[in-house]
TrEMBL record:
The lineage of its organism: Bacteria, Bacillati, Bacillota, Bacilli, Bacillales. It comes from Brevibacillus borstelensis AK1. This is Chromate transporter. GO terms for cellular component: plasma membrane. The chain crosses the membrane at residues 25-47, 96-117, 129-147, 159-191, 212-231, 307-329, 341-361, 373-403. Keywords: Cell membrane, Membrane, Transmembrane, Transmembrane helix. It holds the Pfam family Chromate_transp. It is found in: Cell membrane.
Length: 405
C-alpha cells in the first residue's frame, strides 16, 4: 500500500497537468480566434508568434513540419495547424480545445448574422449586394495569389486552365473530385524526383494504431453518410453529409470550398445564391478560419442546430486527417511521388477556384459597370493598399448601399 500511494499520487499529478495544459490551450486558441484576421497565411503567422516564439510549445523546425503536413492534407490549413499544435501539447483533448477556441468566435458571429438576415428578410438590400461584390474582389485576389505560388510554370498553369475549363463545362462536385484525382495521378508520373529529404521528425503523442483508426473513421464516414442520407435518415444526417464531403475534398484553403458548397447546397435548393454569397462576403469580416462559413450556411438552413451540425461536419474531416497522418508524416514527406501528386493537385485547385470566380461569383454579382468599378476599387484596396479584409467588407457594404443612390 505504501508503495502504491506515490504511484497514484504521481498519476493524479500527471492528469492534473494534462488538464491544465488543455485549459491553457483553449484560452490561447480563443484569444487567437478573436483576433486572427487576414486569412490562413496570416493565421499561420499569428500561430508562429504565439505558439513558437512566445510560448515555445514547439520549435521552428517542428512548426515547419506541421505546416507542411497541413498544406498536404485537404481541409483548412490554419485550423489543422492549430489542431496539430493542440495535439502535440495536450493530446487529443488538446486538439479539441484548440479547435473549439479558434473556431467558436467566428461561428457564433456568422450564425448571428444568418439569424439577422432570416428575421429581417433583407436580401434585396443594397448592402447585401455590396457583400457579394466583396466576394468577387476577395476571390480574384485569392486566384492571383494561389496561381503565383501553386501554378508558376507552364505545366502547372496548363493543369489549372484545363481544370477550370472542365469544371465550367460540367459544374458538379463529382467532376471536381475526379479532376483532383486525375491531377494527382498525373503528378505522380510527371515529377519523380524529390526536392529534398527532410532529416527532422515531428514527435507527437499519438500512436500509429490511433492514427490508423482515425483514418479508417474518416473514410467510413465519407462512404456511410451518403448511404444513410439516401435511404432516408434524419435531416441532420443529410445536412452533415453535404458539409462532411465538402470538408473532406477541399484542397488549397478556405476559398476553394466555394464551388463544392455551391454544388452541394445552392444547386440542391437548400438556400439561394444571394444568401450564399452574402454570407461568404460577411465571412471575410470576422476573425478565424473561413471554413466557419459553414456555421452561417447551417444556420440559414436549419437554425442554431443546423449551424452546430454543419460546423462539426465541416471540420471533422480535418480533425481526423491531422490525427491520422501525424504519426506517418515523416515517412510520407520523403516520397517523391507524393510530392509530385501534391504539386499537380495544388495546380488543379487553382483551376477549380478560377472556375468558381466566373460562376457563380462573377455572374451573379457583377451586373453593371458600377458593380465592376466597385469590385475593382475593393481589389485595389486589398492588393495594393494592403487594407485589412474586415475594413474592405465594411467599405463594400457601404458601396453597395450607395450604388442605387
Amino acid at each position: 500500500m505504501l508503495e502504491l500511494e506515490p504511484m497514484l499520487s504521481k498519476e493524479r499529478q500527471t492528469k492534473q497537468n494534462q488538464w491544465r495544459n488543455v485549459k491553457e490551450i483553449f484560452l490561447v486558441a480563443t484569444k487567437l480566434g478573436l483576433t486572427s484576421f487576414g486569412g490562413p497565411v496570416a493565421h499561420l503567422g499569428y500561430f508562429h508568434n504565439e505558439y513558437v516564439r512566445k510560448r515555445k510549445w514547439l520549435d521552428d523546425q517542428a512548426y515547419a513540419d506541421l505546416v507542411a503536413l497541413c498544406q498536404f492534407l485537404p481541409g483548412p490549413a490554419s485550423s489543422q495547424a492549430g489542431i496539430g499544435i493542440g495535439v502535440i501539447r495536450g493530446g487529443i483533448w488538446g486538439g479539441v480545445a484548440a479547435w473549439i477556441g479558434f473556431t467558436l468566435p467566428s461561428v457564433l458571429l456568422l450564425a448571428c448574422f444568418a439569424s439577422f438576415l432570416s428575421a429581417a428578410n433583407s436580401l434585396d438590400a443594397g448592402w447585401i449586394h455590396g457583400l457579394k461584390i466583396v466576394a468577387v474582389a476577395i476571390v480574384v485576389q485569392a486566384v492571383l495569389s494561389m496561381g503565383q505560388k501553386l501554378a508558376p510554370d507552364r505545366i502547372r498553369a496548363t493543369i489549372a486552365m484545363l481544370t477550370a475549363a472542365v469544371c465550367l463545362m460540367w459544374p458538379t462536385a463529382a467532376v471536381q473530385v475526379l479532376v483532383i484525382l486525375l491531377a494527382g495521378a498525373f503528378g505522380c508520373l510527371a515529377w519523380k524526383q524529390s526536392d529534398h529529404s527532410p532529416d527532422s521528425e515531428l514527435r507527437v503523442p499519438i500512436s500509429r494504431t490511433s492514427g490508423l483508426l482515425c483514418l479508417l473513421l474518416f473514410f467510413a464516414l465519407l462512404v456511410l453518410l451518403p448511404i444513410l442520407s439516401h435511404i432516408g435518415g434524419p435531416s441532420w444526417i443529410s445536412l452533415s453529409d453535404h458539409f462532411y464531403r465538402a470538408g473532406s475534398l477541399v484542397f488549397g484553403g478556405g476559398h476553394v470550398v466555394l464551388p463544392l458548397l455551391d454544388s452541394e447546397l445552392v444547386r440542391a435548393g437548400y438556400l439561394s445564391k444571394e444568401q450564399f454569397l452574402a454570407g461568404y462576403g460577411a465571412a471575410q469580416a470576422v476573425p478565424g478560419p473561413l471554413f466557419t462559413f459553414a456555421g452561417y450556411l447551417g444556420a440559414m438552413i436549419g437554425g442554431w442546430s443546423g449551424a452546430l451540425f454543419a460546423t462539426i461536419a465541416m471540420f471533422l474531416p480535418a480533425f481526423l486527417l491531422v490525427i491520422g497522418t501525424l504519426p506517418f508524416w515523416h515517412t510520407l514527406r520523403k516520397n517523391p511521388r507524393i510530392q509530385g501528386a501534391l504539386r499537380a493537385i495544388n495546380a488543379a485547385v487553382v483551376g477549380i477556384l478560377l472556375a468558381a470566380l466566373y460562376h457563380p461569383i462573377w455572374t451573379s454579382s457583377i451586373q453593371s459597370s458600377a458593380d465592376f468599378a466597385l469590385a475593382g476599387f475593393l481589389f485595389c484596396l486589398l492588393v495594393f493598399w494592403k487594407t485589412p479584409p474586415w475594413i474592405v467588407v465594411i467599405i463594400g457594404a457601404l458601396g453597395g448601399w450607395m450604388l442605387p443612390l
